[in-house]
Amino acid sequence: MKVISYNLRKHRAAAELESLVERHDVDVLCVQEVDTTDVPAAIGGLRLADATQRNRLGLAVYYRADMYRPQEVRSIALKKSLHDRVLKPAEERMLGVRLLDIDSGREFIVASFHAAPLTALNSLRRHQIRTALAELQQLGDGLPVLMVGDYNYPVFKENLGQKVREQGYELTLSDSRTYTRYRFFRGHYDFATSVGFDIERIRTLPQGLSDHLPILVSAEVTAVAAEGAA
């Protein structure tokens, strides 16, 4: 399975999506900072599973309809930072979809995630990640989970990785940095947390109109997630 995650930078890079999907033969597309008033029903052969509703710049998940069938969708608001409370840029920061593989009959969960901005503390982002992963298990207890997106976590990722492992998941970075706009803040922002998946590779794709670079996740469902992963 090939999954692309892309923060569109206030929808600026939306026009690039069809080309990305077709060029990389993508099966699932997860986007962040998409204009939810301008979300197409299909992109490059992928069908819209759902998009968030309570913020103009939100999240969306697309899937290949000849391979998967959506079973259930869940979007949630996560603990707010001061930035969120004052400026209210986003209400829902996680959108998860339970998908059925039509050929194998196996189910798994994929999610688009966007953590609080850098003005928040890492401890708050860890709380958001922990809560999001726990909520995804409510879509299907014990199912494999892949959550990709903009984690806004450029430093101290070793600590984050340990916290994620304690929750039963693995954290996987791409092969090169995914944010380049400001020299001081450059680094890996966009990555994946997973359980029940074999992450073969996460590749950072060339930069387009966004300040984030899209990432391409090559992954395979390997097993049912262990009980208590959440």
CATH fourth-tier homologous superfamily:
Endonuclease/exonuclease/phosphatase
> Count of helical segments?
4
Tell me the series of helices and strands, N- to C-terminal: EHEEEEEHEEHEHEEEE
Structural class: alpha+beta
The description of the largest β-sheet is: 7 strands, mixed
Largest sheet: spatial strand order: 3-4-5-2-1-13-12
Poorly predicted runs of 5 or more residues: none
Number of strands: 13
Query: Within the CATH hierarchy, at the fold level, what is the topology?
Result: Deoxyribonuclease I, Chain A
Percent of residues in helices comes to: 10-25%
Number of domains as seen in the coordinates = 1
> Class in CATH?
Alpha Beta
| Mean pLDDT score | 90
Secondary-structure arrangement, i.e. CATH architecture = 4-Layer Sandwich
Radius of gyration: 16 Å
Beta fraction: 35-45%
Distance between the termini: 23 Å
Give the overall shape, derived from the CA principal axes.
globular
